[in-house]
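To whoever is on call:

I kicked off a structure prediction for a single chain this morning and the downstream step that reads the tokens threw a length-mismatch warning. I double-checked the sequence; it's 388 residues and nothing unusual in it as far as I can see. Pasting both halves so you can look.
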Amino acid sequence: MDGLKTVACGAIDSLKDELNDLSQEIWKNPELNFNEHHAHSVLTQFLEKQGFKVEKGYVLPTAFRATFGKGAGPALPEIGHACGHNLIAEVGVAAGIGIKAAMEKCGERDIGTVFVIGTPAEEGGGGKVDLIRSGVFSHLDAAVMSHPYNVTCLAGPYKAMNRVTVTYKGKAAHAAAFPWEGVNALDAAVMAYQSISCLRQQMKPTWRIHGIFTKAGVKPNIIPEVAELLYYIRAPTDKELRELTEKAMVCFEGAAKMTGCTMEVEWDPKPYSNLISNHTLVSLYEKNAESVGVEFSKDYNSTNAPCGSTDMGNVSHVLPSIHPMFDIGTEAVNHSHGFTAASGSPKAQPYTLNQGKALAMTALDVMCQQHLVAKMKAEFQEDIRKEQ
């Protein structure tokens, strides 16, 4: 096993310049959800050059699946900069290359299959949800990926989340001449916003609701006929998300009744589930990461602070998964200009390559020791039972 891991790490090191070039090409050409055509092109070309069988436009136009081996095995999601998705892609490709090299070292011995899966639109588009619904992950044993951050930790507390658009409709009228003829939709939106703000006093510390006004009238002298709110609702589990959603709906409905407006509610059809980190995979990853010099933060507040939501959470409800986060040598926070710059900096490369090595070695542990597959799947079933 140690020999295979050495081969995997050596293969990644041998292509470190090419991997950096790949990451830079994505970083210099940021693309929006489901429009990652350039990233799709450069990643699939690179993987084909490395000897993977690549299926382009796999289920989604900018998704792909690169395969080496036969049968079941681990998956390495994703493609995507303010969140460092160029580095996520580099980690996944690097890990795939390392695993492939180790598999080739095994010769005729069949240890399974590795899939490098390009999963677009993580930032609000739910690309992995589409792939889940199409059965892409149904035959796999595990899914592993790693996400850039400003600290290194084993398992980020990613929350379940749904997005909702609330539209209030009233009646327009001249605000100076005939205001009594109008029904003010903006009043309804303001009351809903204030009601949500009042709700926060009774919310659990781990719950989050944040929203904005997306429509608020046309001109001051016209009673607003239409007003619209966009809210993100988050909680530690899918079950708690349902509970918080019910409370938010009371606020939305109450505002409509108090103002005489009608209300339309549109929920995102692809809500995100909370992340379930498989204990067996986490333990394997921790040992392997430390073996290449990765140091994990000991600061409880940093490693347990809420860090948003991800569609990798949905994957973790389908099969054993991990989604660790890794420092890239910056104090800047995700979704900031500083983090964007850090994601394209040469300083991020050693951290990124170490993550590729750690994930590759973790996958090899699972592929070469079948008792670990049974163990992590049993843990997964128990975790899912607890989520109900």
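Update from on-call: the warning came from a stale cache, not from the record. Cleared it. Sanity check on the structure: The first helix runs from residue 2 to 14.
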